[in-house]
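User: Just a sanity check before I run the rest of the batch. Below are the structure tokens for the first item. I only need the designed sequence back.
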């Protein structure tokens, strides 16, 4: 439906629209005939069908008022097949160089070839594959992954022994919420630096890092002044695979703390009597409330420490009154 039909109400009066409509039908019929003749496998078997298609094309050209110059050339039913074969043969001849007849076109393949820059991400929970380097038997360097060189050969100097066996200051001792007292790992390193000097001691791994479902563990050897001092295995828990690198570092510090026990560093922290006296003198147990979940529990802390977020002080209710929290006013 167009404007000419609404104005005249007669299709015979719309000559221009009829001419365009006839031209569209002609092109559609011509494309169908070419597609049909291209799919024919044998020329002699379907020659009659091709001649009928050609005659239908010639008859449809007579109904058009306009002729495209490219449609005036007579065609037979197999012209598209010949054109296709000619294009294929021309492409085959131009694919090779005219100066080098022996050169042939490379075969086309649809297989995807692997690239060299593919990066495979390893799962850390399967292990770190960090076994220590094992030296040859003829090497002059000590293999600390297997050797016990210098163990218990002689005592350290009086100055070093004095720094190692010095009493721990109560100001350096920390208290965990469950009541366990400990000395931070950095203070163990400071004591070793005072005793031997920076660079005169170190930790040598004695095995591969073992990663379990919830923890990391590895064995280390403490070496001081070129002598093996102690061997201990460190451990550290983790909560997600992203925390494994941090857990590996904590495992190393835990092994250092255990190795220092053999040197007498902070030996008071393994003495039950000292622990009880320290808790009674420098620690206290308080009720706290979580500010987000409102869960309440008891925790241990130093008397000179402050309650930190997300906890706040909670005062249990007395038998005859309500509970008091934080900095609430007194009743």
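Assistant: Here's the designed sequence for the first item:
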């Amino acid at each position: 439906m167009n404007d000419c039909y609404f104005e005249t109400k007669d299709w015979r009066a719309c000559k221009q629209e009829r001419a365009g409509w006839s031209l569209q039908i002609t092109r559609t019929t011509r494309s169908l005939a070419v597609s049909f003749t291209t799919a024919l496998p044998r020329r002699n078997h379907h020659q009659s069908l091709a001649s009928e298609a050609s005659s239908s094309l010639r008859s449809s050209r007579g109904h058009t008022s306009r002729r495209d110059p490219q449609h005036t050339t007579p065609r037979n039913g197999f012209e598209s097949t010949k054109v296709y074969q000619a294009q294929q043969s021309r492409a085959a001849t131009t694919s090779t160089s005219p100066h080098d007849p022996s050169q042939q076109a490379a075969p086309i393949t649809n297989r995807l070839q692997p690239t060299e820059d593919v990066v495979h991400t390893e799962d850390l929970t399967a292990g770190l594959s960090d076994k220590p380097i094992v030296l040859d038997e003829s090497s002059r360097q000590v293999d600390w992954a297997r050797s016990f060189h210098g163990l218990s050969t002689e005592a350290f100097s009086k100055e070093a022994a004095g720094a190692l066996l010095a009493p721990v200051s109560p100001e350096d001792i920390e208290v965990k919420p469950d009541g366990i007292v400990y000395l931070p790992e950095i203070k163990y390193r400071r004591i070793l630096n005072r005793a031997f000097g920076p660079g005169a001691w170190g930790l040598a791994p004695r095995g591969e890092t073992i990663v379990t479902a919830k923890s990391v563990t590895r064995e280390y050897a403490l070496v001081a002044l070129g002598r093996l001092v102690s061997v201990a295995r460190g451990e550290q828990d983790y909560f997600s695979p992203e925390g494994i690198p941090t857990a590996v570092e904590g495992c190393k510090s835990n092994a250092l703390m255990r190795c220092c026990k053999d040197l007498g560093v902070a030996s008071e922290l393994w003495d039950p009597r000292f622990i009880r006296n320290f808790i009674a003198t420098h620690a206290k147990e308080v009720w706290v409330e979580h500010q987000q979940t409102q869960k309440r529990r008891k925790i241990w802390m130093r008397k000179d420490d402050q309650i930190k977020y997300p906890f706040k002080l909670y005062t249990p209710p007395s038998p005859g009154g309500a509970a008091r929290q934080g900095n609430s006013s007194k009743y």
